[in-house]
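Review form for a predicted model. The reviewer records the input and the model, then writes brief findings.
Reviewer: anonymous (R2)
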Amino acid sequence: MIAPAAAGQPAEPEGYRLDDYKAPTPATLQGATVVTTAQAQALWTARAAVFVDVLPRPPKPAGLPAGTVWHDPPHTSVPGAVWLRDVGFGALAPSMAAYFRRGLAEATGGDHARPLLFFCRRACWMSWNAAKRALAEGYAKVYWYPDGVEGWSEAGLALEEVQPRP
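Model under review:
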């Protein structure tokens, strides 16, 4: 059963969101626990969950002159978070699905009972999709933090520069 929509928020889709990722998200994610900033901070302080940032890697700007060296801009995230870039799209190529599985296995030591907290940006379906995908992979305790880096920062909590998982 899919949860009904909360006032002003879309209902959960049957599958993954496949486009328009920067848009209002549901208030729920069936099988996961949705957390506020205060709850995310409590989990972080207690080291009670692995924090997984799924923000996509920024694309190389179009129209750069030939031979231009492109460097990704710095990405700040929750301290200690694992950055699994590009795993929040609705459809993943087999290599990206393997990257996601491998990244979670490494982050949890292969323990599917170890809690995972997924986040990205506010009003972004990437973290919703990734949390749903972790549930499908058999992870038993999945948290979804829809306010993401913006909520964390607005609460005055520290951020640090992170690099994507290779």
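Findings: The chain has four helices and seven strands.
Further findings: Helices lie at 37-45, 94-108, 125-136, 148-154.
Recommendation: see findings above.
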